[in-house]
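Hello Y.,

Per our agreement to keep a running log of every chain we model this quarter, I'm adding this entry. I've kept the format consistent with earlier entries: sequence first, then predicted structure.
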Amino acid sequence: MSKVAKHVLEKREDDRGWVVDPIARADPSQPLGHLHLASLAPGAVRGNHVHPASSEFILVWGGRAELAWEEDGRVGREEVSGDELVVFEIPAGVAHAVTNTGPGTVYLVAYYFGASDREWPDTERKVVS
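Predicted structure for the entry above:
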């Protein structure tokens, strides 16, 4: 059983559009350690790394994408259609990458909780095959 979790976000919509709270599942006692936004061009890959001490949360929206991860020597894959807003919760020690599999730009919001050190980030390169 995979330790990577997929959380479908609840959208609140009105005539202006939609709004979601991507960190609603967070432990309020933990500070937000790092947050970044990224775009992903068609065919592009982001990630191919592991966070040895931090669980990372990745919100994917805007188009089709695939999250790939490696745990216990096996590669798992999960498709995102672009029709739903999802947050993937990736435990510490699990290598991961996101690939844009569609024709348009995909957007990511990635974050983790706990102490953050910009000079020595909790990220090591590891390609997910």
